[in-house]
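Quick review question:
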């Protein structure tokens, strides 16, 4: 049954209110301007645990997520990323959840893997909403094999690889949620750990010697996310969502997406990444336990001339659902 005119008007008022909230977040980003070093994800709304540990406090079931991303197909040395996540409520203590995240990222000659244990504690702050506080702690491992580079005039800087450089990782996150709305802010790593600096290698290859180390300190990555689910009809749900990533010294990264859930089985959507890409997404609720999502990015920059876009696929397994709390999929 479709909504009446007053109900539709109420939905539009809700959309306006949440657009204003998201616009405020974007205004904060104007005060931020070193390169972004963390991996990026098209299906960020289904991979939230990696960037915000508070997210697991919103889950009332055991969940396992697997995501693979190949960026800039046919572009030599382009990024390849894989993530594995696990989360579960802590026994009968509905306010606590634990989990783990594994992120494996390859770009050029570097391979970086980080593993964290995640914990969240949630508080009921209103009749319909909860606020979840999350922390993540673990280790980051960096390997750089310079033999994978095609260097015309190799020098001393390319003769010593980086082998299993261990660094600590500690992150924080806040996540507010209801059955239809969510908003979060997070800092996945508060330490300025060392990353492979591909820009530095480019300078050396081009003859600009004497620029020092080929690893660079990671700048702090702030993430702000939000989304809302609107019931357009009994069989159609609409979810606009956004993610803003702020890195000191780097351009603002803003993702804006729109997804439709049909018959609680099929998800179709599109997204735009500011000055970077447009995206098509699709998801399939194969069973009560299994969701499969796919995404394709078309680059809006010159790099699309040398590549065939970026592809992403994900699997989410939800086990031991607590059907007493949410009858239908929450869509995030």
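Suggested answer, residue by residue:
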């Amino acid at each position: 049954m479709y909504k009446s005119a007053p109900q539709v008007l109420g939905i539009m008022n809700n959309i306006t209110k949440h657009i204003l909230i998201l616009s405020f977040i974007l205004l904060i980003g104007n005060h931020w301007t070193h390169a972004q070093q963390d991996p990026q994800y098209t299906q960020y709304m289904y991979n939230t645990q990696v960037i915000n540990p508070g997210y697991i406090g919103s889950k009332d079931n055991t969940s396992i997520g697997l995501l693979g991303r190949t960026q800039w197909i046919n572009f030599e040395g382009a990024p390849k990323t894989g993530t594995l996540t696990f989360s579960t409520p802590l026994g009968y203590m509905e306010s606590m959840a634990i989990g783990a995240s594994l992120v494996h990222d390859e770009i050029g000659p570097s391979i970086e893997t980080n593993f964290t244990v995640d914990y969240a504690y949630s508080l009921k702050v209103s009749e319909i909403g909860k606020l979840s506080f999350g922390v993540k702690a673990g280790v980051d491992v960096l390997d750089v094999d310079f033999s994978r580079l095609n260097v015309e005039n190799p020098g001393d800087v390319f003769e010593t690889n980086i082998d299993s450089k261990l660094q600590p990782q500690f992150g924080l996150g806040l996540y507010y949620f209801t059955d239809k709305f969510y908003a979060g802010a997070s800092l996945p790593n508060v330490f300025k750990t060392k990353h492979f600096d591909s820009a530095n290698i480019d300078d050396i290859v081009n003859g600009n010697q004497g620029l020092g180390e080929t690893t660079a300190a990671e700048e702090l990555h702030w993430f702000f996310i939000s989304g809302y689910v609107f019931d357009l009809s009994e069989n159609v749900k609409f979810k606009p969502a956004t993610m803003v990533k702020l890195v000191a010294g780097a351009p603002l990264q803003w993702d804006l997406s729109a997804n439709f859930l049909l018959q609680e089985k099929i998800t179709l959507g599109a997204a735009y990444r500011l000055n970077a890409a447009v995206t098509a997404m699709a998801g399939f609720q194969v069973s009560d336990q299994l969701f499969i999502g796919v995404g394709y990015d078309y680059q809006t920059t010159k790099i699309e001339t040398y590549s065939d876009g970026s592809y992403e696929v994900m699997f989410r397994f939800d086990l031991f659902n607590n059907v007493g709390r949410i009858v239908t999929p929450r869509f995030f």
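Why it works: Residues 40 and 316 are 18 Å apart (CA to CA). Helices lie at 5-29, 48-51, 198-205.
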